[in-house]
Amino acid sequence: MTSLAVPMEHVLLIAAVLFLIGFAGVLVRRNVIFLLMSLEIMMNACGLAFVAAGAKWGQPDGQIMFMLILAIAAAEVAVALGLVLQLERRFDTLDVDAASELNG
Amino acid sequence: MELTLFYIAAAVAIAAAALVVTRLNAAHALVWLVVALLAIAVIFFLLGAPFAAALEIVIYAGAIVVLFLFVVMMLNLGRRSITRERLWLEPGMWIGPAILTAILFGEMIFLIASSDTGDAGSPIGPKAVGEALFGQYLLAVELAAMLLLAALVGAYHLGRRYLRDRREEAS
Description:
Chain A is mainly α. Chain A is built from three helices and one strand.
């Protein structure tokens, strides 16, 4: 595999577009499962930016940061899906707005 | 040639991500999420990060999405949830978030366009990644292990109570 002449700006732009799609999803959706999927897209966008930066400087650090993002995503999804089950159990809905009992 | 592949993969990734966010059925959205993840894996491969591409497929598309799928199946979301979802997504409620994200996107384009970044260059093999990972980043690996252990205990705790309550309900 030879080195690839992808303009760095375009990679970063694609990462930005993916991040903003996920961000819009987090803002618009009310179903917790879709919120989590949007978060996954956002994390992937961050990982893409990290890998692109690592490739740009010829260092493995970018890919290592991607792996740490992977570990964080796995931990986040495991706990969050447990919370989704509890939300469904207690409120009988997946609407995040249902879990607002903490407001005074 | 590779540049064309890159742009095709990027277009697929963005389209699939947009479809994930707009679907009403959670299972369909998950399938689109897999497509988006595979497209991002192709981008990683083209950027010269084959190890990251493999991890993207194995862990994201293989493990995390399957976890989602299990929960969607456990919750048994049917036709009822689709009509409810349509109710939650009132037309017009996406306008505010869309404007905000468009502003952020404009700023991002401006920043990226005004900086001189050059090409995304050289490929980095798994060997270099492994050496750095278990060399200077050993502490981060340990921290990730502790984080995953905490997540394991937390997920077990939350899920166990859910299953116990269901069993009591059934009996």
